[in-house]
């Protein structure tokens, strides 16, 4: 009679080896992806390996992204700009495809993912969802190809988490609109060809498609950043910017417009943060296997293995959450609180993974010879942009209790 531990037919034959374990995918999440999804991921990884990874540490150190237009055209040629939108030169791919692309882009650098996210999920999405047919035809094909770069002007110097109090104003002057105001922390601002600017009007908050060569528009770059340094960040200045009547986005009035765009971009962050986390964990694992102290690799010490195991668990949990939200978005759509769960959890856990990885690298953890400190400082920005942890916590709290606690 077999004992409880004896299972006939389960004994491995001599010489048979188990499949090699991927230490960055212990749960086998890859098995849940289709061949087509894996192909999308591989294509993005290939372009990042060739055109980003060899240079991004230098860009970060210098605080510049000198090849932003060349990179935009390359990413556009791959179909990554507005890739989840339909028509007008957009690839029309799935939310999971887009998420996998964001993961690979942010595994290289958060600033590169931000370039793609702002272009596709903010500027292009706003025009695609709320623009006129003429606006769509004028801008979307060029933006999808990377021939035109867009930015998204909502955040102001004094109004970040409270966009309902924005001060940028659009007033009627005959049939024209005249815009005055300031926007702050705008990705792509000083290299953009078009800005989607949100302003207060007598009718409520409206969005405007603003060519950046319009008189009165300027976008001075923001200097002295210690995060997202391989990214273009600017202020937008609008001094009497005169636009024709058809510059307004006709299909939306109120904060529903910009907030729906932000939910699109936040979804990409849910995935992207796990890319930064994977890169940091992979670096720490490789380093721990090579770094010797007390006569053996530090990977052999229990406390190091505890750190590695905890990081692997959080990476697994976050990636599974991102995949679940992606499948749901492709199926029935996402509610705002579901996006908030993903953004709140995954960015915080990714930042924790990067900080832990930094400790494994010791003093080398602060060197740009390794990507860990770069990911860590980038995630400090990702943690608070497009919704601070406090705001996402309150979105979730309101969904649970039915009571808004924002004021």
UniProtKB/TrEMBL annotation:
Its cofactor is FAD. Residues 7-23 have a biased composition (Basic and acidic residues). InterPro entries: Acyl-CoA_Oxase/DH_mid-dom, Acyl-CoA_Oxase/DH_mid-dom_sf, AcylCo_DH-like_C, AcylCo_DH/oxidase_C, AcylCoA_DH/ox_N, AcylCoA_DH/ox_N_sf, AcylCoA_DH/oxidase_NM_dom_sf, Glutaryl-CoA_DH_mitochondrial. The lineage of its organism: Bacteria, Bacillati, Actinomycetota, Actinomycetes, Kitasatosporales. This is Acyl-CoA dehydrogenase family protein. Coiled coil: none annotated. The keyword Metal-binding does not apply. Keywords: FAD, Flavoprotein, Oxidoreductase, Transit peptide. Residues 151-241 form the Acyl-CoA oxidase/dehydrogenase middle domain. Residues 254-400 form the Acyl-CoA dehydrogenase/oxidase C-terminal domain. Signal peptide: none annotated. It comes from Streptomyces macrosporus. Belongs to the acyl-CoA dehydrogenase family. Residues 1-23 are annotated as: Disordered. Residues 34-147 form the Acyl-CoA dehydrogenase/oxidase N-terminal domain. It comes from the Bacteria.
């Amino acid at each position: 009679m077999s004992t409880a531990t004896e299972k006939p037919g389960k004994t491995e034959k001599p010489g048979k080896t188990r499949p090699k374990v991927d230490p960055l995918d212990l749960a086998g999440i890859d098995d849940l992806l289709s061949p087509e999804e894996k192909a999308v991921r591989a294509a993005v990884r290939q372009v990042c390996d060739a055109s980003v990874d060899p240079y991004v540490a230098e860009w970060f150190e210098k605080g510049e992204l000198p090849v932003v237009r060349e990179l935009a055209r390359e990413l556009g040629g791959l179909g990554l700009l507005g890739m989840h939108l339909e028509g007008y030169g957009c690839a029309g791919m799935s939310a999971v495809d887009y998420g996998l692309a964001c993961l690979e882009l942010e595994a290289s650098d958060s600033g590169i993912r931000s370039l793609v996210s702002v272009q596709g999920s903010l500027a292009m999405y706003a025009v695609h969802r709320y623009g006129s047919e003429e606006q769509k035809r004028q801008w979307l094909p060029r933006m999808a190809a990377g021939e035109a770069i867009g930015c998204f002007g909502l955040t102001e110097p004094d109004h970040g988490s409270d966009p309902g109090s924005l001060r940028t104003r659009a007033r009627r002057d005959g049939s024209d609109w005249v815009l005055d105001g300031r926007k702050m922390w705008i990705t792509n601002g000083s290299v953009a060809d078009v800005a989607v600017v949100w302003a207060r009007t007598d009718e409520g908050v409206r969005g405007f498609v603003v060519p950046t060569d319009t008189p009165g528009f300027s976008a001075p770059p923001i200097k002295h950043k210690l995060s997202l340094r391989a990214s273009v960040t600017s202020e937008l200045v609008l001094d009497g910017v005169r636009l024709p009547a058809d510059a307004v986005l006709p299909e939306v009035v109120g904060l529903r417009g910009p907030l729906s765009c932000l939910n699109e971009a936040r979804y990409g962050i849910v995935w992207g943060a796990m890319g930064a986390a994977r890169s940091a964990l992979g670096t720490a694992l490789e380093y721990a296997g090579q770094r010797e102290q007390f006569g053996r690799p530090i990977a052999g010490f229990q406390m190091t293995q505890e750190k590695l195991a905890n990081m692997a668990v959080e990476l697994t949990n976050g990636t599974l959450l991102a995949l679940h939200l992606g499948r749901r978005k492709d199926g029935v759509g996402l509610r705002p609180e579901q996006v908030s769960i993903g953004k709140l959890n995954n960015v915080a856990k990714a930042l924790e993974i990067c900080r832990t990885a930094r400790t494994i690298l010791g003093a080398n953890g602060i060197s740009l010879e390794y990507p860990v400190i770069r990911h860590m400082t980038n995630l400090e920005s990702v943690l608070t942009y497009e919704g601070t942890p406090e705001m996402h916590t309150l979105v979730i709290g309101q969904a649970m209790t039915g009571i808004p606690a924002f004021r």
